[in-house]
Amino acid sequence: MSNKADTEPGHIFVYGTLRQGSNHPMARRLSAQARYVGQARANGRLYDMGWYPAAMFDESAPTRIIGDVFALPPGERLLAELDAYEHGDPNYARIPLEVSLVGTGTVLVWTYGVSKPPNSA
Q1: What is the dihedral of CA 38, 43, 47, 49, to 10 degrees?
Q2: How confident is the model at residue 42, as a pLDDT?
Q3: Taking Cα atoms as reference points, which of 45, 48, 70 lies closest to residue 59?
Q4: Domains of the chain as residue ranges with CATH
Q5: What is the SS3 string spanning the chain?
Q6: What is the spatial distance between Cα 20 and Cα 27, in angstroms, rounded to a whole number?
Q7: Sorted alphabetically, which Gene3D superfamilies does this protein's record hold (predicted)?
Q8: What is the pLDDT of residues 31-78, one digit of tens each?
Q9: What is the pTM of this model?
């Protein structure tokens, strides 16, 4: 019998305002509460949304999105705080994704992305 911990990612991939070294308050909270694992890549495209980027992940995309992976602490409090921070566009959601860690293989993560290009019909 599998439990929730076996089927849901225990890591998060961030590529914008939450990256390692960012001075954003939520990035500082993430760095303080989660363990930095390393830099990672995923195929897709970044869109400039003004003061933040939005990613559309696509395995067949010729471009890669570079970001950071953090191991989430036990419980769901930090993830709930990140969900609240990332809430906005209805096409923007938390999704599971496999990313390539630089030099060490792949890992299943949570990340936030758009389901269609911004400003599309």
Answers
A1: -40
A2: 98
A3: 45
A4: 8-114 (3.10.490.10)
A5: CCCHHHHCCCEEEECCCCCCCCCCHHHHHHHHHCEEEEEEEEEEEEEECCCCEEEEECCCCCCEEEEEEEECCCCCHHHHHHHHHHCCCCCEEEEEEEEEECCCEEEEEEEEEECCCCCCC
A6: 7
A7: Gamma-glutamyl cyclotransferase-like (3.10.490.10)
A8: 999 999 999 999 999 998 887 889 999 999 999 999 999 999 998 999
A9: 0.89
Q: Which residue is it, tokens 């969900």?
A: 83
Euclidean distance between the first and final Cα of the chain, in Å? 43
- 77 sits in the region (left: phi over 0; alpha: psi -120 to 50; else beta) called alpha
CA 94 – CA 58 distance, rounded (Å): 15
Quote the CA–CA distance of 107 and 8 in Å, as a whole number: 12
* Cα 81 to Cα 74: distance, rounded to the nearest angstrom: 14
The strand pair at 53-57 and 64-71 is best described as unpaired
